[in-house]
Design a protein that fits this description.
344 residues; alpha+beta; 3 domains; six-stranded mixed sheet; 16 strands; 31% helix
């Protein structure tokens, strides 16, 4: 693919308009048989792995489109909504962190052309996830006791998460264990350090099973107590904290499967209780499985786009037939969002 049509689309000057914004409606008006030069006028970002001659390859629509599919003025409210999304208003924009600033530059140019000062771009929040496995973890009795086992298993489907399952591809840890300074913790708690790769007290490698770990625990009370609990079988699970660098979504046996292809490892931890996926991941996939664009919904709420919110309520109402009024449906939806935030 030509470098010119990769990722964030460079800023450009167009007419601007301050009017109500219906993102899904504007995208629906776009021509389906156009090329990349046409779609680039509408959006601020393109997926470098997708076909740029299809509108599904693009994100952050912010231009008006007439009934004949002609792309017109940049919508001020849509540009503000893009910045709100970049700043986490919809759970965070699902693009690489390195693309956030260029996308901001794109819509900020439209806002300045309209005489508006764009909101500042906030620092990207690291979205750390945790996973746990039932694996054999033991304390090796030697001159210096060691905790050994596997923190992750390759090519093994996870238990059903909300809307998807997950597995780890061999090689997912190969880069991070060579270059990153990784800790071994107890229960992911930085107050209880068991080992560290930089200090040589934590050793990691990929083998045929998964991510193999070897820890030289310190001569401290908590570490001694932990080794007793491991030997008794009271603590028998390992977990790892990570951020995703590369992933792939597949359909396997009718299920959505998230394949972790490359991750940045933060820590490995013997854990008392298994870790669960972050609410952000669960919610996005759960909504997608019933036909709701989570990111679009968060922008609609932020910008109070009634039409899109009503479409979402209609979908949710089909799963809650007892809700008979728009007001009741909206209140129920708000309560669900509040519960989601409480779980986070």
């Amino acid at each position: 693919m030509d470098k010119e049509i990769r990722k964030a689309i460079p800023p450009h000057s167009t007419d601007t308009v301050d009017a109500s914004w219906d993102g899904p409606g504007m995208v629906a008006r776009l021509k389906n048989d156009a090329d990349a030069s046409y779609y680039r006028k509408m959006f601020a970002w393109v997926d470098p792995e997708a076909d740029p001659n299809t509108k599904s390859a693009y994100k952050f629509p912010h231009h008006m489109v007439d009934v004949d599919g002609n792309i017109g003025a940049a919508n001020i409210r849509a540009c503000n909504a893009v910045i709100a999304a970049l700043n986490g208003a919809r759970g965070g924009a699902d693009i690489p962190d390195t693309d956030r600033k260029p996308v901001w530059n794109h819509v900020a140019k439209h806002l300045r052309d309209a005489g508006r000062e764009p909101a500042e771009l906030k620092s990207a929040e690291i979205k750390k996830e945790e996973r746990s496995y039932d694996v054999r973890m033991v304390v090796e009795e030697a001159d210096n006791k060691k905790i050994v086992g596997h923190a992750a298993v390759f090519n093994k489907l996870s238990l059903p998460l909300i809307g998807f399952r997950e597995k780890i591809e061999p090689g997912a840890f190969s880069e991070t264990i060579q270059k990153d300074d990784i800790r071994a913790l107890f229960n992911h708690n930085a107050d209880y350090v068991l080992g560290r790769t930089k200090a040589g007290t934590l050793r990691l490698k990929e083998d045929d099973i998964g991510l193999y770990i070897e820890i030289d625990p310190p001569d401290t009370t908590f570490a001694k107590d932990l080794m007793v609990s491991i030997k008794r079988g009271d603590v028998d699970q390992m977990s790892f904290g990570f951020t995703v660098q590369d992933e792939e979504w597949r359909k396997e046996n009718g299920e959505q499967v998230r394949v972790l292809k490359r991750v940045q490892l933060w820590d490995v931890s013997p854990v008392t209780f298994p870790a669960y996926p972050q609410t952000d991941v669960k919610v996005r996939k759960a909504f997608a499985d019933i036909g709701i664009d989570w990111e679009g919904l968060m922008v609609a709420i932020q910008t109070q786009e009634r039409q899109y919110i009503e479409q979402v309520i209609k979908i949710l109402r089909s799963f809650c037939p007892q809700e008979r009024t728009e007001t009741a449906g909206l209140e129920t939806f708000k309560r669900k969002l509040e519960l989601i935030e409480m779980e986070d």
